[in-house]
Amino acid sequence: MGRVGVLLLNLGGPEQLGDVRPFLFNLFSDPEIIRLPFPWLQRPLAWLISTLRARKSQENYRQIGGGSPLRRITEKQAQALEQTLQQRGQDARVYIGMRYWHPFTEEAIAHIQRDQVEKLVILPLYPQFSISTSGSSFRLLEKIWQADTSLHQIEYTVVPSWYQRSGYLRAMADLIARQLDQCPHPQQAHIFFSAHGVPVSYVEEFGDPYQQEIEDCVRLIMQTLQRPNDHTLAYQSRVGPVEWLQPYTEDAIQDLGAAGVEDIVVVPISFVSEHIETLQEIDMEYREIAEAAGIHHFQRVPALDTHPIFIEDLTSLVIEALNSPQKRFSDVVHPPQKTFKLYPQERWTWGMTTTAEVWNGRLAMLGFLALLLELITGHGPLHAVGLL
Ligand SMILES: C=CC1=C(C)c2cc3[nH]c(cc4nc(cc5[nH]c(cc1n2)c(C)c5CCC(=O)O)C(CCC(=O)O)=C4C)c(C)c3C=C
Ligand SMILES: [Fe+2]
């Protein structure tokens, strides 16, 4: 076998407070994160949202020490995987490609080319597939491959999701069991799975399998855990005004408090490393909500990071992928879309029709954005004519 590489895909996170705004700009520039009808609006809107959100987001990163631990943890995972692959007789180099911050996916591909890798396993560090996470990275890679034909020499295969693997499930069950055993009444503690949310439209309009995979993942973890405890699944980290998957974590915690639950063990399940949404959102914000709701005992299950069972399982996954039929980007980036007709009327007719209302709404949104931009930048037509 020629030179073997493993490309670990991850989201990336700001390493210092000054990185927060450009990191957010990269994130909101991604059409898989904000889906707009007009592509030309993507970057101005990303600039606007990242500018408006930066201060609040920076404050959150400040509370966890001034930056995301994601790069450091992903590097440790890569190192552990490389070592375990060596021990199992597989000489492979492990690369890291982040979607929105350093080391960027493009940098990883440059290293892979420099090292003349011939066989590559592309492995997202997201157990479940979403078009907003693994899907976005696969789509970027597909574009990179289309732009550079020298990459076609590399025999690659992608792993779309892997939450059903027994090693992953056993490692999760092990971490949950340890937290349960520290509770005052281990059998009565409520196991609270908190998954990262996505907008409902991703699932209902764009065919994202994420919700179904998350539900299946929770079922399999509970089956592996073999404990009698009650459990709940809720979704966290909502951003913006649209509807996201429900129940929302904050509401579900309050409902449990109102129902008299006193002990909860929170399990983050969309991600395998500590990051801002475990260290700040769960450990600080949701803990406060739980305490106010009368939940006296609040524990959080740590992220897998370099849990030995997990790393062993990733190692087996890589070896199996190398010996399985190839999965191409085109097999995984286009989830089956539900046929969804946004507006029933296809031809323009005059009057206050549905189409006219839709266009009124779109133009009002554009006008509002232009005004907001002008208020923030201090430049624009209203300033020019002296109205602002
Ligand atoms: C606005 C839409 C967003 C979607 C959809 C989304 C999906 C999604 N994200 C993760 C995992 C992570 N997200 C992280 C940061 C982050 N994500 C969003 C927005 C969406 N995410 C924002 C605005 C941010 C920045 C932080 C903030 O301002 O709140 C991170 C990085 C965390 C870090 O430590 O830096 C991760 C990881 C998943 C798994 C997911 C969908 C399944
Ligand atoms: Fe996110």
UniProtKB/TrEMBL annotation:
Fe(2+) binds at residues 196, 277. It catalyses: Fe-coproporphyrin III + 2 H(+) = coproporphyrin III + Fe(2+); heme b + 2 H(+) = protoporphyrin IX + Fe(2+). Belongs to the ferrochelatase family. Its EC number is 4.98.1.1. It comes from the Bacteria. PROSITE patterns: FERROCHELATASE. This is Ferrochelatase. NCBIfam families: hemH. Its main location: cytoplasm. The keyword Flavoprotein does not apply. GO terms for cellular component: cytoplasm. Catalyzes the ferrous insertion into protoporphyrin IX. HAMAP family: Ferrochelatase. One of its GO terms (biological process) is heme biosynthetic process. The gene is hemH. It is found in: Cytoplasm. GO terms for molecular function: ferrochelatase activity; metal ion binding.
